[in-house]
Amino acid sequence: MIKIFCDKKEKKLRNFWNHIVFHPTDAIEDDWGRRILDKCAEDKAVKTVRIYSMMENIFSLDENGEITADYELNDYRIDYLLSKGFEPHIVYAFIPGWLCERTDITNKAQKGKTRYKGKMLYNSRVTDYSKWEEICRQYTRHIIDKYGEETVSGWRVHCYNEPDHKGFFYNDAPDMYARLSEYCKLYDAFEAGVTSVSGKIQIGGPALAQSGYNLEFLELFLNHVRENNKKLDFIAFHSYGASVGKLNDGISHLRVRGSFYNAFTIAKITKLCGFGNLPLVWDEWGALSEGYLNIEDCPKAIFRENEVYSAYFVKLLTELDEIDAPFEKMMICLSGQHEMKADFSGLRNFFTLNFFPKPIYNAFVLAGKLGEEKLSFYARRTHEHVSVMPTVHEDGHISVLFAYADEELRNELPEIEVPLRFLGIDRAYRVEKYIIDKKHANAIEKYRELGCPDNPTDEQKKYMILQRSKQNRQARYLPKIRITSL
């Protein structure tokens, strides 16, 4: 039995989950990238969009060795996000080739030799940090001049991406301590550049990948900030539930706890280092890392395409909310989108190649429909695998999010009946059920029914998109709801 007390408000609901990392950033310039963002805006599924500033493509040197900048594409991307109602979260990255110690070491976080549109990402250390500071200063001055200090100070900007990972920063460092030392210089120059323009801009770092689960990098970075009195307004970090290699080898499993174990360790380190009052921004999360690897690399990545990921997401957000997790925002990473060669190939995205919405996207849409306040409820221990988020809106209507998933998120789950009672209702309500399971809001099942066509016809596309997801009933309360397959 699950009882929801509709006349007992528990707390203001803090929606920290309807946020994304949009990658590659420069897909905003393209029809397919804008199509994704347009749909997210239309469905009110996303609040914040994290992007890279792409310093490597903005700044160059003229014939006299002076720094020059071309902001045309940067402005287009930010303008587009703002026009759709998104709040930008900007990562000041990456290093231009002319400012790198070496240009023969490049990022390999993709299947091709280059990144999207043939671009390169160098992961060497900086030769002149005063020039990095100047780049950060000029970029900050530009966005303030264009959008206004009041607007930009409402955003968040942070220094670099995963500087503890050799794939992104100082690849040939002899050890973690050398890489940390260089990142501290990078952050100091970033901080000086930004604050020379405005002290109101919210700046942060270090957005760690936690490479090798070495969290000493964070501890030493925070000590550096404290001891040198550097400005730090928030702490950004990344945490994933499992890695492709460990999932394939059976070392790790698809568990929600895997996603936030490191996150809570980071929260503890932050507090111990004297920064417990700072917001924690989980600016990359996912059930599985390596977004550019797909089913051919990891057959278990099929969960990214089906209803299992929806259950994972709901289970994750409800458990974090239940314990009042200290995370201000949680951004799902959509990297790997440009690697798509076929529908339902196990990549980390909301939509397939032919723009079929995945169940994880549909779950984001539903999570965005929750009310402003959380209602009290309780559930019997026999329903421990049922995740519940009961809410009420300002106008009085009630939205409740449910999911069923056991600890190992098995694909095949038993069909169960969960008695559900809404108490404290003083009027009749029209009940609407939105369902995500194997038969509803789940295009991959229809795709399989059609024989997994490489080039689906228009009729087949309509069949897969027109999914039954909504049912209406008139009732004062629902005595039972059947929860299936999630």
CATH topology of the largest domain: TIM Barrel
- Estimate the helix proportion, in percent: 25-40%
Provide the gyration radius in Å: 23 Å
Contiguous low-pLDDT stretches (5 residues minimum) are 472-486
CATH class of the largest domain: Alpha Beta
Number of domains: 2
Question: How many individual β-strands?
Answer: 18
Average pLDDT reading: 90
The first-to-last residue Cα distance is 18 Å
Fraction in beta strands: 15-25%
Question: What topology, given as strand order, has the largest sheet?
Answer: 2-3-6-7-8-9-10-11
CATH evolutionary superfamily of the largest domain = Glycosidases
For this structure, the quaternary state is single chain
- SS element count, helices: 13
Q: What is the overall shape?
A: globular
CATH architecture descriptor name of the largest domain: Alpha-Beta Barrel
Sheet with the most strands? 8 strands, parallel, barrel
Kindly name the structural category. alpha/beta
Short description:
The chain is α/β, with parallel strands linked by helices and 486 residues long. The chain has helices at residues 31-42, 55-58, 72-83, 129-147, 149-152, 176-195, 216-227, 244-249, 256-272, 307-322, 359-367, 443-449, 458-465, and strands at residues 2-12, 19-21, 48-52, 59-61, 67-69, 87-92, 156-159, 202-208, 234-240, 280-286, 327-333, 373-379, 386-392, 398-404, 416-423, 429-434, 470-475, 480-483.
Description:
The protein has 486 residues and is an alpha/beta fold. It has 2 domains: 3-8 and 374-483, Sandwich (Immunoglobulin-like), CATH 2.60.40.1500; 14-371, Glycosidases (TIM Barrel, Alpha-Beta Barrel), CATH 3.20.20.80. Helices cover 30% and strands 22% of the residues. The protein is built from 13 helices and 18 strands. The strands form 4 sheets. It has an 8-stranded parallel β-barrel with strand order 2-3-6-7-8-9-10-11, surrounded by 4 helices. A hairpin with a 6-residue loop joins strand 12 and strand 13. Helix 10 packs parallel to helix 11 (359-367).
